[in-house]
Amino acid sequence: MNWMDQPDLYSRYKIFLEILQSKEHISLFDPRLKRYTDILIDLEKPFTTWSTPNHIILVHKTLCLRHFPNKYESSAKRPVLILPPQAGHHSNLADYSPAQSLVRVFHRYGYDVYVTQWLSATTEYKDLGIEDYIRLTDEAVEEVRKRTGVYKIHLVGQCQGGWQASIYTSLFPDKISTLVSAAAPIDVNAKPSPIVEYAQKLSIDVFRFMVNSGGGVMPGKFILQGFKSMQPEEHYVRKYFRLWQMIKEGDEDGVKRFIHFENWYQYTQNLPGRFYLEIVKNIFKENNLTKPGSFQLDGRPVDLRNISCPVIIMAGKKDHITPPEQAFALKNYISTPAADVIEILTEGGHIGTLMGTESLREDWTAVNEVLKLAI
Length: 375
Prior knowledge:
Helices cover 45% and strands 17% of the residues. By secondary structure, the chain is α/β, with parallel strands linked by helices.
């Protein structure tokens, strides 16, 4: 495919090309420039995969439960269920690459690992709400308990999965041994952040309009655009210059990392419209997780004070999506004794905290060391 035959793509990066030519006098026929544009053309159709062998053990509605057998330990310890975020990206955030896999960190410590893969919502499931996702989470927990014969399991929530895991644990405290909440917004008023300001400033009608434009589901592309708008210079300018620099310098490892990440980041999934609107209302607009009983799921009031198990809270020092104060606030609303609450502050940002190489090597290893002490 000739890149010059792609008018939309050429238009999109026309400014970049003009700046590049003026600075470096690059010919439009330079093979490096063709490779650069070919990469961007390929990324127009992103795809992503799992890195660790696994198999599907349960599929229901938007839930796909995956089991990752532990090749290091035939008699694995207490099972771990990981709840990745449902923020428009693929759930393999928990198993991003061989070198960046939370699944493999838990494997090295001998755990039996399960991950909820949340599927892109079709209009058939547009009316699923938070209570439905808690029911689906319970189905996953029950499947893990049935397969392992273990009554209480470790529950790990990443970002959106963190507040979901917290709600679940408050409703089903007898099923959870230890709760891990990573980069999860719990008290959104604890510290200002762009995503909270955006949600609180706009009328709920704006969010309803976006859902209606998707036929009842919230298009993942809208969610992605929202994340990009918080760092527009990075997502629309800087990263493209970095890619060119890597191609020019022959940094093939850097190019591979760029392609891998962009395939994951640009791959989007739709959310059930009702689920999305309930999140906007209860989490970001009304901060209801901090108000016991302010909303109910299946007739049961949500009250984080019901959580009394050991809790590990993680947050990133440079996290612009969920500032540490929002995440660490969880300790203020639970009944777990202070001695059983561990706070871990990573050096990274939001994504770095969840799957960064340093965070997985240092901080998530510390999580595993703590879990070894759990009953």
